[in-house]
Design a protein that fits this description.
Elements: H1 3-12, H2 15-21, E1 23-26, H3 28-31, H4 38-43, H5 47-50, E2 55-57, H6 62-75, E3 83-86, H7 99-104, H8 108-124, E4 129-130, H9 154-169, E5 184-190, H10 209-225, E6 230-233, E7 237-238, E8 241-242, H11 247-257, E9 263-265, H12 273-277, H13 283-293, E10 298-299, H14 303-313, H15 319-335, H16 348-354, H17 358-369, E11 373-377, E12 390-393, H18 418-425, E13 435-436, E14 447-450, E15 453-456, H19 463-475, E16 479-485, H20 504-516, E17 520-525, H21 533-538, E18 541-544, H22 552-560, E19 626-628, E20 632-633, E21 637-638, E22 652-661, E23 667-677, E24 688-697, E25 702-710, E26 716-717, E27 723-724, E28 728-735, E29 743-748
Helix pairs in contact: 1-15, 2-14, 8-9, 8-17, 9-10, 11-13, 13-14, 17-22, 18-22, 19-20
The chain binds alpha-D-glucopyranose.
C-alpha cells in the first residue's frame, strides 16, 4: 500500500479504532471462544476491543494463525490485519545454541544463517515478528538472562546483533520484510537491562552516562543501523527513571540521536509497572508517561486501551502522539505486505516439510560445534580414542532437554541426546554398560518453576543407587566423560541465582568418580558461566556445551571423538567465584594496580581470591597449538585526517601477525585485535576488542593476519561527553584471547 493510502486509512479510523492498534493481547484472547471472564475482565475490555487490537503474541501454528486472522479481519472495521509476534530467540523448532553460545562462535555469517532458518520456520508457521535479538550487554553471571545475550563485549555484540537482524529480516535494512522467509526483528531491551544491580532480574540499573554510551548503547545502535523494525523497552530504571516512561532515553536518545523510526513496543506489562516503580499513581498516568516517551504498543497491560481516549479528551496528551504511533504500526504491517496478504508465509503443508528438515538440522549441528568451548585439554586427552574403554556418566547422558530456557517450541523428542550422539560415532569395546546417570540433575529439595512447567527430582532413583552404579562403571573404564550441568530453568527470565556452582548431587558424583579414576573429561551444560574451580582441578579436559540445541548430542560426540575440532572462544568471562562479579575483561587500572605482592595490602585486590577470572573473555583452545609472531605495524603514527593531501582520506595503520599452526591437526583460530588508549581526558579501559578474524590453518601452515586501525576505532566519550578520539599513545594487542600481551604501540596525532 502506498503511503497516501495509509494516510487516508488513518484519517478514516475513529478514535477507538486507532487506540486499538496500540493494544497487544496474549494468545488466550483469540484461541478459545472470546474470553469474557478472566483475562478480558481483568483488562476491563470486551469483544469490541479484542477485535480492534493491533497485535497478538505467542500464538503458534499456520492453521491456527490463519483462522484467527480470518475471523479477526472480518470484525475489524477497516479489515486491518493483526500482527503475530513471539519470542523466537534461538530457533523456532530447529533449536540452535543459546545466544550466549552463539557469541562464542565469533562467526557473524553462521549466526545470520541460523537467524535466517529461524525466520523461515517461524514465518511459514504464520509469525510476523520475533522478539529477538537481545542486544543487552552482560557482565553478571548471576543474572539468568545472560543466556539470551551474546556476551560482555560491545564490539562482539554489535556484530552479532547486525547478523541476527539481517538474518531475520533478509537483506539490508529490512528492505525485504515482505519477502518470503523474512520476519521483523525486535531488538531488546532498551536499554541496559543486563546491568541489573546484584544480577537480580528487573532490578535498578546504576550506570554513568559514559558507560551507557561507550559500552551498552552500541549494540542497540547496530540493530537500528541494520534496520530493525521494532525495539522493545526494558523493565529497568535508568537514572532512576523506568525505561518505559523515560522520555530522554526514548525520544532524545533512541529516536533522535540513534535515528530509530520503527515501532517501539513495551515489554510485558511494563507500562502498568510504572505504577510499581513509583512514577505513576495509576494506569492513566502510566499511559501518559509511556505515550510521551513514544511507546507505540502496550504489551498486554491494558493501560492504553482503557485510558488514552480520556487522556486525549482531557488534553492530557495530544491526539497527534496517538496518530504517530498508529502510523508506525500501520507502516510495519505494510512493510510486511500484510495489507496485500494478511497470512504472509503461513502454510500448513510447507510447515510440515520445512520445519526441522535435515538441512536445518545440519546447520544447527554446525552451530553447536562452533559454539562449544574447549576450556582445558591436559595431556591431549581429547580427542578420544575409540580404542579406549570409555564410560559416559552424568545426569545429562540421556537428558533430552539440551535447549535453552527461551526455546518455546523446542521439544525433547526432536533433540539428539548425548547418548544417541555418542552411539552414532562410538560403539564401545563391548556391550558392558558404558552409559549411566550417576546422579539426578537437581538436588532432591530443589523445585524449579519454569516457563511452562515445574521441574524437580522427586521421581528419580535415589542418588545413592545412581552413584553406586556410576562408581562401578567408572572402575572398569580407562577414561570417564562426565556430563554435568545446571537445568535450562536455572537461567532465562527470572533465573537470577546467588550460587553459580553445580547442584550438590552432581558435585558429589564428580568427587566420587575422581576418587576411582583420574582420567576425567567433563562436559558442562549451562546458560551462564558457572564457578568451575572444583571441576577444573580434577578434570583433564573441559568442554563447555552451553545449551547446544536440537543437534547437541551429535555436535558433542563429533568434538569428543575428533570428527570436528573446537574453535569457539568465550563471549563472557568465567568468574573465579561469584564474589568477583561483575568481572569482565579490560577493566580499569585504578590508582592502586595490584603488583602481585600481598605484603602491601593497600592495592586493588582481594585477600582471598585473585582479580582475574578463571577463564577470560575471548579464551578457548582446540586440538592443535597456534603460534603468534610479534605484532607488526605498517607505521607508528596515525593521523586524524590525512593532512598531506588536504582531503578527508582516512589514514590507516595495518597491524599484522604471522600465525602458525604448530600441531598435527588442522585448526581454526579466532584471532583478536584489542586496543588500549593509554591515557585520555577520562580513565580509559585496559583494552577493548576492535576486530577479530576466523583463520583456518592446516598443520604447519603459516598465514599473515592483518587488521586495519583507523581513527574512528579510537573514539569514546571524553571529559565533555563528546564522542571523539584524543591524540596520544595506544597499545595494540593481537592474540587468541583478551589477556594476550603480544603487543605493539602507535601514536595518534
Ligand atoms: C518477557 C521478556 C521479553 C519478551 C516478552 C514477551 O517478559 O522480558 O524479552 O520478549 O516478555 O514474551
Amino acid at each position: 500500500m502506498e503511503q497516501q493510502n495509509l494516510d487516508a486509512l488513518l484519517k478514516d479510523m475513529d478514535l477507538d479504532e486507532k487506540i486499538g492498534q496500540l493494544l497487544q493481547l496474549s494468545n488466550n484472547f483469540y484461541e478459545e471462544e472470546v474470553v469474557m471472564t478472566g483475562p478480558a475482565m481483568q483488562l476491563g475490555i470486551g469483544e469490541k476491543e479484542i477485535f480492534r487490537a493491533g497485535s497478538v503474541l505467542s500464538v503458534f501454528g499456520a492453521e491456527k494463525i490463519k483462522a484467527i486472522q480470518k475471523t479477526y479481519m472480518e470484525k475489524q472495521p477497516h479489515h486491518i490485519p493483526l500482527l503475530f509476534m513471539a519470542d523466537i530467540i534461538n530457533g523456532y523448532k530447529t533449536i540452535f545454541p543459546i545466544p550466549l553460545a552463539q557469541g562464542c562462535s565469533f562467526n557473524p555469517k553462521l549466526i545470520q544463517e541460523c537467524a535466517r532458518i529461524a525466520a523461515k520456520e517461524a514465518t511459514v508457521a504464520g509469525l510476523h515478528v520475533t522478539f529477538s535479538p537481545m542486544a543487552d550487554l552482560v557482565r553478571d553471571a548471576r543474572w539468568g538472562r545472560v543466556m539470551e545475550s551474546t556476551g560482555e563485549d560491545s564490539f562482539l555484540n554489535e556484530q552479532m546483533v547486525t547478523a541476527m537482524v539481517e538474518g531475520y529480516q533478509g537483506g539490508e535494512k529490512g528492505a525485504e520484510l515482505a519477502s518470503k522467509g523474512s520476519i521483523a526483528a525486535c531488538v531488546k531491551h532498551f536499554a541496559a537491562y543486563g546491568a541489573a544491580e546484584a544480577g537480580r532480574d528487573y532490578n535498578n540499573v546504576e550506570l554513568s552516562e559514559r558507560t551507557l554510551r561507550d559500552d551498552y548503547l552500541p549494540a542497540y545502535q547496530a540493530g537500528v543501523d541494520a534496520g530493525c523494525a521494532l525495539m522493545m523497552t526494558s523493565f529497568n530504571t535508568l537514572n532512576h527513571i523506568p525505561a518505559t516512561g523515560n522520555k530522554w532515553l526514548m525520544r532524545d536518545i533512541l529516536r533522535r540521536e540513534m535515528d530509530f523510526s520503527g515501532v517501539l513496543i513495551s515489554d510485558w506489562a511494563a507500562i502498568e509497572e510504572l505504577i510499581y516503580h513509583g512514577i505513576a499513581s495509576n494506569k492513566e498516568e502510566a499511559s501518559k508517561l509511556a505515550m510521551e516517551a513514544g511507546v507505540d504498543i502496550d504489551m498486554v497491560s491494558g493501560c492504553y486501551i482503557n485510558h488514552i481516549a480520556k487522556l486525549i479528551a482531557d488534553n492530557g496528551i495530544a491526539e497527534q502522539l496517538l496518530d504517530e504511533s498508529v502510523m508506525r504500526i500501520l507502516q510495519l504491517k505494510n512493510k510486511l505486505g500484510l495489507f496485500e496478504n494478511p497470512y504472509k508465509d503461513a502454510d500448513e503443508i510447507e510447515s510440515k516439510n520445512m520445519i526441522l528438515c535435515q538441512e536445518h538440522r545440519e546447520r544447527a549441528k554446525i552451530a553447536a560445534t562452533e559454539t562449544i568451548v574447549l576450556l582445558k585439554n591436559e595431556e591431549s586427552i581429547l580427542p578420544l580414542s575409540k580404542k579406549k574403554r570409555i564410560a559416559f556418566i552424568g545426569p545429562y547422558v540421556e537428558e533430552e532437554r539440551l535447549y535453552g530456557a527461551w526455546s518455546l517450541l523446542g521439544e525433547n523428542k526432536d533433540t539428539v541426546t548425548v547418548r544417541t550422539g555418542v552411539e552414532n560415532v562410538y560403539r564401545g569395546s563391548s556391550d558392558e554398560t558404558i552409559f549411566c546417570r550417576g546422579s539426578s540433575l537437581l538436588d532432591p529439595n530443589e523445585i524449579l518453576y519454569g516457563f511452562n512447567g515445574i521441574v524437580n527430582a522427586h521421581n528419580e532413583q535415589s542418588n545413592e543407587v545412581l552413584l553406586t552404579e556410576a562408581i562401578r562403571t567408572a572402575e572398569k573404564a580407562d577414561l570417564i566423560v562426565l556430563f554435568l550441568g545446571e537445568h535450562a530453568y536455572h537461567t532465562g527470565e527470572g533465573g537470577s541465582r546467588g550460587d553459580i556452582t553445580l547442584p550438590n548431587c552432581q558435585m558429589q558424583l564428580f568427587r566420587e568418580i575422581s576418587k576411582v579414576n583420574d582420567n576425567i573429561v567433563t562436559v558442562i551444560f549451562a546458560g551462564r558461566p558457572l564457578d568451575l574451580r572444583k571441576i577444573e582441578k580434577n578434570s583433564k579436559a573441559i568442554l563447555y556445551a552451553w545449551f547446544p540445541g536440537s543437534e547437541g548430542g551429535n555436535a558433542i560426540a563429533d568434538l569428543l571423538f575428533g570428527e570436528k575440532y573446537p574453535s569457539a572462544k568465550l563471549s563472557m568471562s568465567f568468574p573465579y567465584s561469584v564474589g568477583q562479579i561483575p568481572v569482565y575483561y579490560g577493566g580499569f587500572s585504578t590508582g592502586r594496580v595490584f603488583n602481585g605482592d600481598r605484603a602491601n595490602r593497600f592495592q586493588s585486590t582481594y585477600q582471598d581470591i585473585p582479580n582475574e577470572p578463571l577463564y577470560p573473555f575471548g579464551y578457548g583452545i582446540t586440538y592443535t597449538e597456534f603460534q603468534y609472531d610479534a605484532v607488526a605495524l605498517s607505521k607508528n603514527i596515525l593521523q586524524k585526517r590525512d593532512l598531506i593531501h588536504h582531503e578527508n582520506v582516512i589514514d590507516i595503520i595495518e597491524a599484522s601477525v604471522i600465525l602458525t599452526n604448530m600441531g598435527e591437526r588442522m585448526g581454526v583460530e579466532i584471532v583478536q585485535l584489542y586496543i588500549c588508549d593509554i591515557h585520555g581526558s577520562v580513565s580509559r579501559p585496559a583494552r577493548r576488542l576492535k576486530g577479530f578474524q576466523r583463520v583456518m590453518l592446516q598443520p604447519g601452515e603459516r598465514k599473515k593476519v592483518t587488521f586495519e586501525i583507523t581513527e574512528k576505532m579510537l573514539r569514546f566519550y571524553d571529559i565533555n561527553m563528546n564522542y571523539v578520539s584524543e591524540a596520544g599513545e595506544f597499545r595494540v594487542f593481537i592474540g587468541g584471547d583478551s589477556i594476550t600481551m603480544n603487543e605493539s604501540r602507535f601514536v595518534l596525532e
